[in-house]
Design goal:
This protein folds into three domains: 149 residues; 71 residues, no CATH class; 130 residues, P-loop containing nucleotide triphosphate hydrolases (Rossmann fold), CATH 3.40.50. It is built from 15 helices and five strands.
Length: 373
Amino acid sequence: MEMIVPVVVNDFVSRVISKLIHSYQERGNVGQKLIRLQLLLMRLHASIEEAEQRFITNQQILLQLNIFIEAASQGYYLLDSFRSQATEVESGQDEVRNVYSLSSLNPCKRIRRMSNHVRSLLLGDQDMSKLQQVMELLETIAANLPEFNTLVGGYSRRSRRPYDTYLYVEKSMFGRHIEREEIINFLLQPDDDSAVYTLGVLPIIGRHRSGKKTLMENVCNDERIRNHFSYVSVLDGDDLEAVITNNDLQINKCLLVIEFAFFVDEESWKSFYQRASNLLKGTCSKIVIISSLEWAARLGTTRPITLRLLPLEQFWYFFKAIAFGSADPNGHPRLLSLGMQIAATMDGGFVRAQWCGRVLRARLEVDTWSFQS
């Protein structure tokens, strides 16, 4: 039996290699398409980067920017997937060479392990179809970039961003441009001139660790908000009684960010809101509620903003920038492959991505990343 297995495996591997060669020959030009994909992504990335440095208030331009970011994320994810797949092929070749030396495995296990590995090497029609779809989307977007760049150029610039991408991504609200501007527009709105004063309340609802606090932190750091409000405070919604007794609400033009983590005491909220409305009348003050509780949306005076999970492609771009820092991911192909596996297990959690990304960035080693995956 021991003598037969190597012969069977050799024949199996030879057949698979022949199939791979035939498959790649049929598809042809895959390498050229990937180069074209990378060039399109570089061009699109430059336009996105420029737009993110502008104070864009037009909702249609923001929507277009969001579409561009989604398309770029799909392209980068696909490109990294192919690189990861190539890395697995190379590591698999080493596994093929060593498969006979694994004396701890019986012959059946050897064949099963080889079969599972080879199955992962095949570039299927679904991969090629996805590549073609993304290429067509990026080609369409590239044709509209000149007009987009012209529109974006009409808006004033933000403060200059840091050099390293990961520093910028960690401090920004990646993938939340529309929500961010909706919040800022609400906060900068003047008070209603009607006879009955209403203190504006905006609820931000999203699942646990979806980035609600990070989003508000980013909004509060915007220079327009810093210049507009004289006082910003984060309050515990589960203990509003203590807040009602202090004098903070007497400060002119306040921004109060209230978090309801576990429950909403309706009576405490009514008492707090009535007192806040009396003290802050005519000051253009605002309240923002952040919570994972759907019921908290009822406390708003305007339509709530609901944070959805980012698509995996966008989340991967965010996580990759944090995990690799200023290092080039292409210089660490094995870590790139492991990083994609790690990101897929995080369920879109921003907090976990930032924490785990910092840990991985501190040690760009296969052992450390393998442990996390």
